[in-house]
């Protein structure tokens, strides 16, 4: 059993293992291979979420897990309870894992001592989003069957996006050329990759990942109007026409149509936006199996774990 906090903590072999399992789950569809195992998992979301929260919940239920859904607005955090005490409470109730999204970067560091449940990071501030990176990897691999030698462009709010960080780091490790582009004031020099103009990035990329503007993390309001941002940095119809014939468009969501990309492109032949959402369920199923040491939707027995090591 292991935490999933950042893909940087995993070896390439472990990443491959999770991706292979996610693809296997996808191919199996709704076959009755998973069975109730009565393990409790708590979803603790301290920021708004649609895709991540509901795909985690769907993944948990498909694995037969018992799900506790936490609402920070109706919890004791409103009375001053710390994150540590909230997680410790979930542990005392009987949860074996917690899925946490929090506005604080690396919130999980305060939980690494004294907590005996597995932590799956569903997004920490502008830090990491490992399961989003896993589903993005799965989506790219389904198209191109490999990573080494691909060119992936990540465009938009690079400074505040946890998706940008997680994707850029793992894609670089897997042998992709990462191109970065966006407003000068949102550059992130810590990201691995080469900064190029938007048009050059879109024309060269096999996969174009457009990022949502992280308004909630900005200290000052955006200087550009939505229309100006779309014209300068968005994926317009004109830019999309200059993409490679087999290239794909990706977006972590939620999409702001007419801002990060033209509304018509969300469901275009190049787009894999809704495929990413679908892949999010199987990627998170595989991540939960990995973190909880589950076998085909049930917890591995001690004899099975011993046998695997022999």
Automatic annotation (TrEMBL):
Cellular component aspect of the GO annotation: cytosol
Domain (Aspartate/ornithine carbamoyltransferase Asp/Orn-binding) ranges: 149-290
One Gene Ontology term from the biological process aspect of the record: 'de novo' UMP biosynthetic process
Binding site for carbamoyl phosphate: 51-52, 101, 129, 132, 253-254
Catalysed reactions, semicolon-separated: carbamoyl phosphate + L-aspartate = N-carbamoyl-L-aspartate + phosphate + H(+)
EC number: 2.1.3.2
UniProt-recorded Gene Ontology molecular function terms: amino acid binding; aspartate carbamoyltransferase activity
Alphabetical keyword list: Pyrimidine biosynthesis, Transferase
Record InterPro entries: Asp/Orn_carbamoyltranf_P-bd, Asp/Orn_carbamoylTrfase, Asp/Orn_carbamoylTrfase_sf, Asp_carbamoyltransf, Asp_carbamoyltransf_Asp/Orn-bd
Pfam families: OTCace, OTCace_N
Subunit structure: Heterododecamer (2C3:3R2) of six catalytic PyrB chains organized as two trimers (C3), and six regulatory PyrI chains organized as three dimers (R2).
Annotated family: Belongs to the aspartate/ornithine carbamoyltransferase superfamily. ATCase family.
Protein name (database record): Aspartate carbamoyltransferase
Organism for this UniProt entry: Sporolactobacillus shoreae
């Amino acid at each position: 059993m292991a935490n999933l906090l950042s893909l940087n903590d995993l070896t390439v072999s472990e990443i491959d293992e999770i991706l292979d399992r996610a693809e296997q789950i996808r191919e199996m569809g709704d076959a009755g291979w998973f069975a109730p195992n009565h393990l409790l998992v708590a979803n603790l979301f301290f920021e708004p979420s649609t895709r991540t929260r509901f795909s985690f919940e769907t993944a948990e239920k498909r694995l037969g897990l018992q799900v506790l859904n936490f609402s920070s607005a109706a919890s004791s955090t409103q009375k001053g309870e710390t994150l540590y005490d909230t997680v410790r409470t979930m542990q005392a109730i009987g949860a074996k894992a917690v899925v946490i999204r929090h506005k604080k970067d690396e919130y999980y560091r305060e939980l690494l001592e004294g907590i005996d449940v597995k932590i799956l990071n569903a997004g920490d501030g502008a830090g990491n989003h490992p399961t989003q990176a896993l589903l993005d990897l799965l989506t790219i691999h389904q198209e191109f069957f490999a990573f080494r030698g691909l060119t992936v462009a990540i465009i938009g709010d690079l400074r505040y996006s946890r998706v940008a960080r997680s994707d850029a780091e793992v894609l670089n490790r897997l042998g992709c050329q990462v191109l970065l582009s966006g407003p000068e004031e949102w550059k992130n020099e810590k990201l691995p990759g080469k900064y190029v103009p938007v048009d050059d990035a879109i024309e060269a990329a096999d996969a174009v990942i457009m990022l949502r503007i992280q308004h909630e993390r900005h200290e000052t309001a955006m200087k550009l109007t939505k229309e100006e941002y779309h014209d300068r940095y968005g994926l317009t119809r004109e830019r999309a026409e200059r993409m490679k014939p087999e290239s794909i468009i990706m977006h972590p969501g939620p999409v702001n149509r007419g801002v990060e990309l033209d509304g018509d492109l969300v469901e275009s032949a190049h787009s894999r936006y809704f495929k990413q959402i679908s892949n999010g369920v199987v990627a998170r199923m595989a991540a939960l199996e990995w973190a909880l040491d589950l076998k085909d939707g049930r917890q591995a027995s001690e004899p099975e774990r011993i046998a695997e090591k022999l």
